[in-house]
Amino acid sequence: MKRFWGYEDFRPPQGEIIRMILEQRDALIVLPTGGGKSICFQLPALLQTGLTLVISPLVALMENQVQELRDRLWRALKSDRKLPAALLHSELPRYQRQQTLQAIEKQQLRLLYLSPETLLSEPVWKRLCQPQLQINGLILDEAHCLVQWGDTFRPAYRRLGAVRPALLKCKPKGTKIAIASFTATADPKAQETIRKVLQLRQPQTFLISPYRDNLNLQVQTVWTPKGRETRVLNYIKARPKQAGLVYVRSRKDSEVLAQWFTSLGYSTAAYHAGLGAQERRKIEASWISGQTQFVVCTCAFGMGINKPDVRWVVHFQAPLLLSEYIQEVGRGGRDGKPADALTLVSEPTGWFNPEDKQRQEFFAHQMRSQYRQTQQLAKQLPAQGEVAKVAKEFPNGAIALALLDSAGQLEWIDPFHYRQHRSKKFSSLAQVSNIQQQAQSQMNKYLKTRQCRWQFLLKAFGFTKEAVGFKCDRCDNCLSH
């Protein structure tokens, strides 16, 4: 650890987590942003023979972690020795993808980063199932994405629990494959979902409070679209040369807002999942080096990008979920020095500035529509079948299967085949929909609360004892009192 990472000792509870992963025990780990999660699975993977699979939600996150490992190895060994870590994703050139697949076959890797969809693709799965390939563990990085996206956006997440049993069938008798999930944001309900979906076996749980005493939270109301722009402009003007981030909720908004700031002479860029890999890397490098003062970005930016001196984070539009909010404000102040986080919200009536209300109604309508379609589709789907065939034959078929799984009306025979429980009533689908709506309403309550904002967040994420009588004395509510 000292040689590659330059640290004299572990931060609690890193040492315990690493020992537990080396013992091949299941775990659920919730550590705050900047808490050093990646070292907890990278270090044990490098210490062992065999392969550790890291399931990651974003290409940018995979690329950043692998590049950072490569840089550490170079600095420590002064050698271009081949890094025992690789990644697989859809944007890789064909030759690079083939090289990585060959490295898997030759058992040359210790760490392999890939998305849930890539893990379950035929060429990758075929190689992972080879009996001679030793797989030590399955790491789910940014595990909150399973909860946020698994039902209606990235349905492959719901099949991850069937991965371990299927792999073990291909391996020698007595083989162990541990599963560890890592996230900065998981309330008690999200933790239960992660345990259930991944089929964790007596997992050891590490829960560290999300509270950051150097992060000052603030929410301000704006009355018109122009007023929103003026507010964020004045905010940035008051922080010259300080690195920051402006979060928006759509690709279009990131491009429009970045263009406006550029026209005013600011060094900025729009960042979203629609950009190519080279363009994303260029923006990240420019921001990290200080050439770009701030990035106007969607939720695609931030995970795994380590810039310690971010002094401010603005939410031009509030996220839908508290888990997204904690992730994004957590980009600020990783060096331990004070950082400010401002969220702008439309006036409550929606008469003068209806965009926030319209956005929430749009997502709520979209969700209700997906649940209705699933209820109708469930009657047409084969009682037992193959995911790929259903996805090909029925529009949104894969999402329907994920929603039925979430409602307890379906089980996975393996990662590629399912069996419906048609005896169960469809009322449970409505219950799943209600849980999603409650999660969104929790964000609205946070934006409107008059109590200490950190106290609200501690309660929301299950740290009820720590929340009793808590006051941060830094958020806008504490200061106004």
How large is the radius of gyration? 23 Å
Main sheet: strands, sense, barrel: 7 strands, parallel
Amino- and carboxy-terminal Cα gap: 46 Å
Strand proportion, as a percent range, falls in: 15-25%
Give a count of the beta strands, DSSP E runs of length 2 or more.
16
Structural class: alpha/beta
Backbone shape: globular
Enumerate how many helices there are, as a single number.
21
| Average of the residue pLDDT scores | 90
Low-confidence stretches: none
Strand order of the largest sheet: 3-4-2-5-6-1-7
Portion in helices: 40-55%
What does this protein structure show overall?
With 481 residues, the chain is of the alpha/beta class. Helices cover 45% and strands 16% of the residues. The protein contains 21 helices and 16 strands. It has helices at 2-5, 14-22, 37-47, 59-77, 94-105, 116-119, 122-128, 144-149, 163-170, 188-198, 225-237, 251-263, 277-289, 322-329, 355-378, 387-393, 397-406, 427-448, 453-460, 464-467, 476-480, and strands at residues 27-30, 51-55, 85-88, 111-114, 135-140, 178-183, 204-207, 215-222, 244-247, 268-271, 294-297, 312-315, 339-346, 384-386, 410-414, 417-420. The strands form three sheets. It has a seven-stranded parallel beta sheet with strand order 3-4-2-5-6-1-7, with helices on both faces. The radius of gyration is 23 Å and the shape is globular. The N and C termini lie far apart (46 Å). The mean pLDDT is 90.
